[in-house]
Amino acid sequence: MYEHKIKEIMLGVRKKRIKVDEAMKKLKFLPFEDLGFAKIDHHRALRRGFPEVVFCQSKTTEQVVSIVKKMMEKNVDVLATRATEEMFNEVKKHAKNARYNKISKTITITKNKKTKKGKILVLSAGTSDINVAEEAAAVAEAMGNNVERLYDVGVAGLHRLLGNKEKLDSANVLVVVAGMDGVLPSVVSGLIGKPVIAVPTSVGYGASFKGIAPLLTMLNACSPGVVVVNIDNGFGAGYFASLINK
Predict the structure, then answer these.
(1) Which residues contact 223 (CB under 8 A, 6 or more apart)?
(2) pLDDT at 87 > cutoff 80
(3) Which of 41, 62, 69, 173 has the greatest number of CB atoms lying within 10 Å of its CB?
């Protein structure tokens, strides 16, 4: 979706609709743009099909706003994760169409209309896992996927999952988020023949070791077709699910 923009510039120069200096200005920051505190990878949209995502955690509000403004100049979609409401309020001053998801803590600014295909299903074992699940869902939606959510269907009440079998069957890829014992991804994978991306969360009592216990459970899944991302990494799961769904 971004390659055509480069082609348009090249054709514009050939047909003398765009001056060479103007084209150079448009292409100037293709590798990256150095802001001192950050080097924005403007070329990533061409390489990967989606622009660089802004990870806001440990950044100042001013840094986030500066990065977002530079990305907006390139007329690309903007996705920022682990953002505070204060960051969003400042971004909103420069982008009226910016949207904030309080649960996932994501900021999205949509510039390009996407044709959505397929479906990604995001499941959470418990209500306490929803913030990580929402991060995965928000990322997948920002990347142009149809996303459906199915929350609080953990193995402590397995009938809740089995009562939604049609949703499992209709998805191309599933993101399964769980803390505590981390068993849900194996169970889901055993019910269907679709790729399952397992996300361990830091939710649980002492012996869950802030997510290490569910991480190890998921890495040792006996059902084939399960891959595992890092603890609380909803972003990585949503991004990978999008690559599969494409």
Answers:
(1) 186, 187, 189, 190, 196
(2) yes
(3) 173
